Amino acid sequence: MSLFDAKEASTFGLFRPKVAQSIIAQLIRGVAFLHGEHIVHGDLHLGNILVQFPKVIDHFPTSELYERFGEPESEAVIRVDGKPLSNGVPANVYVPAWFGARSDDIALGEERIILTDFGESFNPHETLRFSSKTLPLLQPPEARFSDEPLSFASDIWTLACTIWEIFGLRPLFEAFYPTADRVTAEQVEAIGILPPEWWKKWSRRLEWFNEEGELDLKPDVSRGHDSMRRT
Asked: Where does the Protein kinase domain start and stop, copy by copy (predicted)?
């Protein structure tokens, strides 16, 4: 179960405060370890952080597994053309069990995490990478505007965004249709104007802001950069 799964399963999508603090501390230590080994993770987000099953689950008898997580749900296998099943095709298949928990049900002591998915990881001393492949809403601004290759700082950006989402109810950035410009607009509104050399590179900045980085919008429509208009 990922942290994303746990929040999605919960009505309010919140962790208990002490649990959130513990998860964040583990995550920071994990990222620090990677960076100490000269590795940039490259794709930090809630979906790539898993909560470990308690070891005791390996020793549950079948009856206790069913009691805690429900009995297996079967679905009949039926051919679209209505013909009999071929030899070797099972008459029933089973829906995967949900062994997870809602975020607000995870107690302190049950929040041990594993950082996963190293498909975008790289050593910046050996590999020059100029683009980010993580979720569009989490891509650091330097991936778009800097002429320098990505390095450990890009992980710090996604780490900070992930910490916000672990502690909070909603992500820091959540453009409905996250184009590069809409994501940049949210970044500037939340954190402030980009460094001067990056600010000048953003050709569409005046659609959202004046040259001082102040919002230049009519707040007479629904929330979000997608629907707001310039004055």
From this structure: 1-231
